[in-house]
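lol ok so funny story. i was supposed to be doing the assay writeup but got distracted and ended up predicting the structure for this chain instead. priorities right. anyway since i did it might as well share w the group, maybe its usefull for someone
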Amino acid sequence: MTLVTRPRAPIDKVTVLSKHPMFSALPLSVLERLCSHATTRTVQEGSVLFAKGDPGSSLFAVLSGTLKISVMSADGREAIFNLVHAGEIFGEIALLDGRPRTADAVAMSDCQLMEIDRRYFIPIIEQPGVALKLIDVLCARLRWGSEHIEELMFLDLQGRLAKTLLRLTENHDDAKGERTLNMTQSEVSHFVGMSREAVNKQLRDWEGRRWVRLKRNGIVVLDVKALSALAAADFEPDLS
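and the output, tada:
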């Protein structure tokens, strides 16, 4: 399973940091110094970057490719928390508290990553405004987690699936206004907490309405407005 259809040029290291809310207020000289201490890692598709419980001593920025953040249950079931794309940063929590990683990070395509060790990152927090920016980022993660739990508890399959498709494709509009999610239906089912069969049934229904188009290992969102209406609706849980 490949998440990108063609190779893309890696994003410049300084550019990644300068566009992230946590680092955007820092002077260019500070960002360049931080990048000078960073190392570049290449991770092949399917490889585990780190596993839950591993020591957390560094932060990662994605220069190219996509990774998934997930956990696996004792009986082999997977719960996917997030996808991390080029230009995004992950690993802040373990980096700050020095405790073990809270999830697995697995490459869904060939990836190039920038890794910043904790010993170079911690002094940056002392820069004016950085600590507050970091708090904002962590609060956003907490809010996202709370929202995800609320969706699993209170939204029915339609609402959860619609909201997931919109969230995962919000920055992927093409010239036609279509949004493509390069994930298998099995992987999507791990996001919404339902069986693959139930997800497939719902997607087939939406395909008949021309709200989505199904392709090999992917879903194309055609009608954002229709899915947004479902995602915004206050559905009662489907207990059948």
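Residues 130-154 form the longest helix (25 residues). The first strand starts at residue 39 and ends at 43.
back to the writeup now i swear
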